[in-house]
Write a structure and sequence with these properties.
- The protein is about 65% helix and about 0% strand.
- The chain is mostly helical.
- The chain has a two-stranded antiparallel ribbon.
- Helix 3 packs antiparallel against helix 11 and helix 8 packs antiparallel against helix 9.
- The model has no long low-confidence stretch (mean pLDDT about 90).
Length: about 325
Amino acid sequence: MEQITSGVPAGASSLTPLKGYKWIAREIERLDPEIDYARIWALSTLYYTNDFVLNLSYSTGLPGLIQNPDGAEILRRTAKITKLKQQRSDDTISHFWHWWENGPNHVDTIRAIEEVNRIHHALYTKVMPEAFTLRDYVYAPCSLGTGPHRFAKMVGLSGFSEKQKRASHLFWKNIMAKMRSEEGYIVDFPENFDAMEQFVEDFNNEKWPKSEVARAIVPDVIGQFSERHFPKPLWGLGRQMILTFTDKRARDLHEMGDPNPLVAWAIKRVVKLNMWLAMNILPDPKLSVPERARQKGDIKGQHKTPRMVAASACPYLQLHEQQVAGSEMRASITSAD
């Protein structure tokens, strides 16, 4: 039974008080992925990345998620992705930063996930029940969990080590254990990292029907990224970045078009160089991205604290307390015998 924590987040830089020039790889190497998976995931994602990269991941991942026309339709009906596209992006990404920093078993992560559960419950009971199948629930964490590895491979780097793959699988498996579908808590999750990758591949290979709704949403996804990170004369470059890193099957389904081959080559080369320098040459950051944001007072946008349900109102925490009490009672009875 996983222990619920409420203290120092898994991604806190204070957990490694002594840091050298290149300390992150050494720290990962000494950790056990079966136990320290949340810390390994945090070290693999919170230090080398930044707001731009996570927004790029959001913007290239969403076209994959809405390959299922039901997913596109629920976004249309809620309207936030078109009318409040920057807020919609920030609301989603703020959860990612929060979960990644705290880890799956921190009480604040569970409180935040419960808020997402309530949003989903309201949508599938009042708006569109068919948009919340188990397959759609599982695709998102599989895509997120394998995303950094697939991104690195796409630009020509080696991607995750076996230890990072194991930690990623356990991290997202335990995140999903707090998520609820109509059938209850989600326990049917791929058995390992390779199975997560295969799940994403199978989803992308599904013969999805074309959706005019999805096709109409995609420009808002691209526009959100371009408007956030580039001046207007360079919005075309933002579009090229999205096209370069979006799976071709999703691009074709949504009629997004293909990137300019020369521009795509140049983008991948620049990204590869930046990633290689960060991993091999430049000094490792002493603080994580969320810590740096808070240090600058940047606690809005991506780094705002997501809405969370009170701990006393979280069914998962109540269930965990009951399980702990039952386990202690059984241990007491066994000891007495």
